[in-house]
Design goal:
Helices cover 55% and strands 0% of the residues. It is mainly α. It folds into two domains: 92 residues, Orthogonal Bundle (Endonuclease Iii, domain 2), CATH 1.10.1670.10; 97 residues, Hypothetical protein, domain 2 (Endonuclease III, domain 1). The C terminus is likely disordered.
Amino acid sequence: MNEKERILEIYRILDENSPANITFLDKKDPFQFLISVILSAQCTDKMVNLVTNELFLKYPTAHDLSVADYNEVCDIIKRTGFYRNKARNIIECSKALDGKDVPSEIDELIKLPGVGRKTANCVIGDIYNRGAVIVDTHFKRVVNRLEIVNEKDPTKIEMLIRSKLEDKYLYRFSMTANLHGRNICHARKPECDKCLLFKLCPFGDGDNQEETK
């Protein structure tokens, strides 16, 4: 099995054994989804969903949040961590989007305050249904253990994955590999005995059983 065949087989196994729809954040309005992803940095999705229910009840639109009181926003989002910086970013991002649509191109999205490539790819994949590679800690761990890449830098990982898979597979692969990392391929104690990718995974051969974050 050559490299291309192996990656497609990994994709197939994850695809066939994952839910048809994988979502981690509740908000599907493009603006609210973008803000939710910004808030998700260093925070659990469960907490973000709780906090954004309160945030968007008070500030449902880009205009509402663009004129919000900074201290009030801090109070609402405090539980997400790094809240002062996040509050500044989401207010400034809202100002930039007031009266505008959320951009549909990565190069435009990353110009917004608080938006990096990971956040931009989340929007491209989830909202615009286009090829996206979302390199979070789970995805990075899985693709490195599978030796699809040997790289720690998120941008380099994204570009390598884009070079190895067709655009139509990218977002689904991002989500299924992420879910696999959450449920099976844990950082400290991966459940290799339950892993459907075990025969395709160099990490699972017993010689590489070490913590990989």
